[in-house]
Write a structure and sequence with these properties.
By secondary structure, the chain is α/β, with parallel strands linked by helices. It is built from 13 helices and five strands.
């Protein structure tokens, strides 16, 4: 029997997931290894890739700069998404995410907030297909809780990932699906696909994250090494200022009655703040 046996690794698995999509796709990119791997696998299968990334006003976050650098390195169209800094606009968007998209938790609201504006820009450009790296972190156990409780126990680590990927609420995935449906945008989250889950579920924490964090991705994309991609950070945290800006806006709007964004989000959901 002749021929080359195709390796089953993250690069080839992502290629197979992305291949059936329309030729023109948008990738929401933080410049991290997850979304960057999606970009590279899309290029592997001949897609016309537009790199989208968001930031507040004139504040160029490290994620935004890394995404722009990725686009420049591979000669791709870069689409900046400028998030609003106006307090009342931020509050109205938060209300929309709670009332119409079904966001309940603080993290979901903060994570979906930039996607609301990214999708808005997509529609202006008549782009119709969005691909993300959402939920990739669930494979690696890099949260503080996972590092403490699961990283040293292989069975607990496996159970953690099984639970994570059996719940569409993980990483705000269900709400992102809803947001895209409301806007008639085709969404693809490759890292939530069963073929990616089965690739790594029997590996322990160190096999996935040594010698570098998310090594099982990084080693299959050597062309990204020159970008010196930073370690994992939640998109709403770090210097993105998303959690800080959104939280401060709603507190400013409703003070002195509410001092916590969580309390405000709950009151909006209950209709106390119309």
């Amino acid at each position: 029997m002749s021929g080359v046996v195709k390796q089953n690794n993250i690069r080839t698995v992502l290629q197979e997931i992305i291949k059936p999509l329309p030729n023109k796709i948008c990738v929401a990119t933080s410049g991290g290894i997850d979304s960057s791997s999606v970009v590279m696998s899309a290029l592997d299968v001949g897609k016309d890739v537009r790199v989208y990334s968001f930031t507040f006003g004139k504040h160029f976050s490290s994620d935004f700069e890394a995404a722009r650098k990725l686009a420049w390195q591979f000669n791709l169209t870069f689409v900046p998404v400028w998030l609003p800094t106006d307090r009342d606009e931020i509050v109205e968007t938060v209300k929309h995410l709670i009332k119409n998209v079904g966001c309940k938790k603080k993290t979901a609201i903060e994570c979906l907030f930039p996607f609301y504006y990214l999708i808005k820009i997509m529609k202006e450009f008549k782009d119709e297909t969005l691909v993300t790296g959402v939920a990739a972190d669930g494979h690696f156990g890099l949260s503080k809780k996972a590092m403490i409780h699961y990283s040293k126990d292989d069975q607990k680590f496996k159970k953690f990932r099984q639970d994570y990927f059996s719940n569409l609420e993980s990483a705000g995935t269900k709400r992102l699906i809803k947001l895209c449906e409301l806007n008639k945008i085709q969404l693809c989250n490759p890292y939530f696909e069963p073929s990616v889950f089965s690739l790594w579920i029997d590996k322990n924490w160190e096999e996935l994250n040594k010698p570098r964090q998310k090594e099982v991705i990084r080693k299959h994309y050597p062309e990204l090494d020159c970008l010196k991609i930073k370690p994992h950070t939640n998109l709403q945290l770090g210097d993105s200022k998303i959690a800080e800006t959104v939280g401060n806006a709603v507190i400013s709007k409703y003070k002195p009655n509410s001092k916590s964004p969580i309390g405000i989000y709950n009151r909006i959901a209950k209709g106390v703040y119309a």
